[in-house]
């Protein structure tokens, strides 16, 4: 009897061990906090700002040689203490294999993802979402991404209505290359949204390494689904790395059909202390025709684990 119990215990332990070995889970996070002088148009003030700091876990679980479960649960953390301690970011579960990847849950649309690394001041005041639509993280989504073929990859985000009176929406993207510019010297993408968050949007993105510089460009057109608020915009960005120092600049425009023109310029620098930590400084200014101009000057720290 004792021998039988031992055999059962060994079998159960072995099964659990194999189950754990089949799973690959990582806990990660990012703390990005800046001290800055901000002027939203009504006078300047000093603030400590948490810039989309986050924690989460993600991983895969091998089901067979051809199939894996993939999952992620990410939460925004308000380190400065001014807002909710936690809020939702990308949270999904799905399958991946030779067919590509299918995800269900809350996720960035493929149009948003298509920007790659062109927005050099993402999560700060100079983020492209200040002037443009399309930076959407949507609930109730089904996302499919194809395998890469000769550097090309296609994707679609389908957003279900989730109510009787609402309409389904979708986002499409086709990209080429590597967003980090490590496997290829060029990244390019074309993407569109249809009725996503009330807008139809078209976006073309390109980034490349040229003579030591990392140069990026983006053009976008957008309009409300009722045909109003048409806008055409453009963005250019440049980055130059000298040892641990990165010098960056970015200029963005938004020109509306009614003559309302807006533009933004940001200049900044990052200093890398280690692979996980950098110090940074930036200055952002927005010139707004129909609303107050805005100015931001800040320094901060970005730590990732």
**Overall mean pLDDT score?**
92
What is the helix content? under 10%
Low-confidence spans: 1-18
Number of helices: 2
Descriptive account of the structure:
It is globular, with a radius of gyration of 22 Å. Helices cover 8% and strands 61% of the residues. The model is unreliable at 1-18 (pLDDT under 50). A hairpin with a 6-residue loop joins β7 (137-145) and β8. Strands 1-3-4-5-6-7-8-9-10-11-12-13-14-15-16-17 form a 16-stranded antiparallel barrel. The longest helix is centred in the N-terminal third of the chain and has 21 residues, at 2-22. The protein has two helices and 17 strands.
At a glance:
The protein has 305 residues and is mainly beta. 8% of the residues lie in helices and 61% in strands. The longest helix has 21 residues, at 2-22.
Indicate the topology:
Elements: H1 2-22, E1 23-39, E2 44-50, E3 54-62, E4 67-77, E5 86-97, E6 100-108, H2 110-113, E7 137-145, E8 152-159, E9 169-177, E10 186-196, E11 199-210, E12 213-224, E13 231-242, E14 245-256, E15 261-272, E16 277-288, E17 294-304
Antiparallel strand pairs: 1-2, 1-3, 1-17, 3-4, 4-5, 5-6, 6-7, 7-8, 8-9, 9-10, 10-11, 11-12, 12-13, 13-14, 14-15, 15-16, 16-17
Core attributes:
mainly beta; single chain; disordered N terminus; 16-stranded antiparallel beta barrel; 305 residues
């Amino acid at each position: 009897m004792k021998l039988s119990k031992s055999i059962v215990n060994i079998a159960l332990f072995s099964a659990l061990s194999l189950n754990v070995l089949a799973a690959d889970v990582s806990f990660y996070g990012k703390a990005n906090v800046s001290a800055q002088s901000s002027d939203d148009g009504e006078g300047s003030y000093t603030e400590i700002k948490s810039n989309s700091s986050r924690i989460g876990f993600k991983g895969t679980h091998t089901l067979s040689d051809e199939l894996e479960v993939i999952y992620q649960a990410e939460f925004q953390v308000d380190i400065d203490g001014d807002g909710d301690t936690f809020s939702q970011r990308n949270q999904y579960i799905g399958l991946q294999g030779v067919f590509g990847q299918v995800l269900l849950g809350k996720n960035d649309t493929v149009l948003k993802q298509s920007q790659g690394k062109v927005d050099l001041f993402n999560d700060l005041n100079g983020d492209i979402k200040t002037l443009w639509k399309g930076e959407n993280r949507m609930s109730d989504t089904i996302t499919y991404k194809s395998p890469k073929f000769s550097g090309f990859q296609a994707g679609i985000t389908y957003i279900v209505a989730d109510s009787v009176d609402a309409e389904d929406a979708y986002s499409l993207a086709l990209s080429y290359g590597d967003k980090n510019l490590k496997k290829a010297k060029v990244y390019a993408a074309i993407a569109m949204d249809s009725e996503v968050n009330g807008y139809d949007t078209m976006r073309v993105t390109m980034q490349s390494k040229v003579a030591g510089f990392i140069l990026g460009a983006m053009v976008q057109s957008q309009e409300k689904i009722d045909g109003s608020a048409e806008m055409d915009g453009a963005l250019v960005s440049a980055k130059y790395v000298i040892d641990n120092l990165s010098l960056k600049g970015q200029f963005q425009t938004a020109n509306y059909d009614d003559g309302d023109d807006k533009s933004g310029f940001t200049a900044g620098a990052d200093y890398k202390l280690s692979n996980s930590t950098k110090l940074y400084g930036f200055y952002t200014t927005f010139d707004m025709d129909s609303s107050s101009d805005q100015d931001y000057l800040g320094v901060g720290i970005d730590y990732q684990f």
